[in-house]
Design goal:
Layout: E1 3-7, H1 17-21, E2 27-30, E3 33-36, H2 47-51, E4 57-61
Antiparallel strand pairs: 1-4, 2-3
């Protein structure tokens, strides 16, 4: 299964909860924003999506 993660930067408030929630190193904080740096490591656990207070993260199976 391949997963595609998307961050909506218009919604993102920069709380870093997604970075803290990701145990697999998929999201890192770079240049004052969360960035998907290692998408192939995503295990589709949805923790980053669940922790985002403004629903700025979505996942899709490809």
């Amino acid at each position: 299964m391949t997963v595609e993660m998307e961050i909506n930067y218009e919604k993102c408030v920069g709380c870093k909860e997604c970075v803290k929630a990701c145990s697999f190193g998929v999201i890192e904080w770079l240049d004052d924003m969360p960035v998907v740096v290692n998408p192939k490591s995503c295990k589709f656990c949805l923790e980053c999506e669940k922790k985002c207070p403004v629903n700025a993260i979505t996942h899709k199976e490809k």
